[in-house]
Write the structure tokens for this entry.
Amino acid sequence: MFPKYDVIVVGAGHAGCEAAAAAANMGSKVLLITMDMTKIAQMSCNPAMGGVAKGQIVREIDALGGYSGIVSDKTMIQFRMLNRSKGAAMWSPRCQSDRMRFSEEWRLYLETLPNLDFWQEMVTGILVKDKRVYGVRTALGVEIEGKTVVLTNGTFLNGVIHIGEKNFGGGRVGEKAAKGLTEQLISLGFEAGRMKTGTPPRVDGRTIDYSRTEEQKGDEPPGKFSFLDTPPLTKQRSCFITYTNPQVHAVLQTGFDKSPMFTGRIQGVGPRYCPSIEDKINRFSERERHQIFIEPEGWNTIEVYVNGFSTSLPEDVQYKALRLIPGFENVKMFRPGYAIEYDYFPPTQLKPTLETKLIQNLFFAGQINGTTGYEEAACQGLVAGINAHQNAHEKEPFILKRSEAYIGVLIDDLINKGTDEPYRMFTSRAEYRILLRQDNADMRLTQKGYNLGLASQERLDRLKDKQAKIAQLQKEIFAGKIEPENINRFLESMGSTPIREKTTWVNLLRRPEIDFATLSKAIPALRELLAKVPAEVAEQVEIAIKYESYIEKEQKMAEKISQLENLKIPANFDYSKIQAISTEGRQKLQKFRPETIGQASRISGVSASDVSVLMVYLGR
């Protein structure tokens, strides 16, 4: 009935879609298996993509040749660049998405891929022989063979949904949980755990009094994610902000004795940085209000997402509390918020390629690895899909360093440090964040994607054109000079120190209070130069000038650390022979079996002296 596939992807969430698309576009014969074909790339939680550090990930996925950025651009209803008041390393793109169109657009893209087949059913097990996966088994007992398998099961593995004292099995509301896989993986020697996440109620937007809320408009002009020529957003929908109050908190507290979180019925650990509303008022009891974001779910729907009100309290308590929020006095609820508990597998059991250490050609991506967020899942899916293809065709593995991408930081954190709570990406996790900006993701990664056969020729051509324009603009900017009498009046108006002798434009641009926009008003020749190039080119040159010393410092640090990444440790290395390494360090090294000295140095419990001893022992 089925041919033998190169890559079988289990699950069609954000990780599964990117994995299947990547492998298919690289030339593998791919099967994507999902329990419901109508839920492909479903936005299970908030209708948005990007955000702090997450937006950088979406741009990296796009630069490599993935689809998340393109789909986001085609289905967004609002765009904002967050953290503009901070340094360029912190700028993070975010969009509100049309939930229904996002899922539809993803499915339409996948259906255009000739190498990709679909099958709708539950996968209950994998086929394994001699510690090598060779396919999957479904609930109907169908066995499908594949050279590699990518598991992207999301919150479906033995998922349990909690609303107050009620609980029932499910991967999402209205969808059944996946059974059988966890038990088999444990029997094969994998370690498993439980995690929890939650979602807020959805409400009828027609019943909200927006006059009692604060409007939050999108950027003008709006930006986008993809480096390709995706259509610009011509109109936007506003979001709105309101706040809870002591009356809301008092009503919520009446349900605490029925809360699955506080009564111990939920054993899994929830996301620290996206807590439920009951967790917020319990942990931050001194605060009289918490911010609530009112987010429309699309262009043509009245459904609204109540961001900041994630909860698993009884539905009647949720409803009473909602109606005490300003603007929500007459609100109608579509469905209550809920918590979901699910199985995950600690990611220290993975290689940097996201292949499991125990079973060859088996890959994990997404929430099965303990992460939270569409963007974190999608980038793992992309890397797993790439490496599943590479394995199936006996090619070199694809691994991104911490200095090359946020994706590299995320995977390195997971496999070396593990996580006992849902992992979310932040700019603070990246030690090279000035290098890993959202604006230069194509400069960092598109050539790599092209070399893999994933990024298109069009992407590479656009990159080369951009690089040429940057080089030319830099040459002309660095050559520009100005006399004191032509600039001092302007400098004084800016509160900037006047110059005493002829100076370069670059010296003026290095001042924090001066940028291209302001300086070009005073220097017509600069204004003419900037008018000839795309905004993204001018932005790259301006950042390079303003952050030159910081960028050089991080590049030197990255080069120094990369030397450790190139020092390989033999796969069968026996750490028990080195008594000079601490007992904890020896145990951790034996358990995690790092592939390089660099990885070893980032394992919790392995000290700097342990690494030095290891390097000496390896003759380095």
Notes: The longest helix spans residues 457-479. The chain has four domains: 5-196+342-452, 202-338, 457-553, 566-617. The domain at 5-196+342-452 is CATH 3.50.50.60 (FAD/NAD(P)-binding domain). The chain is about 35% helix and 20% strand.
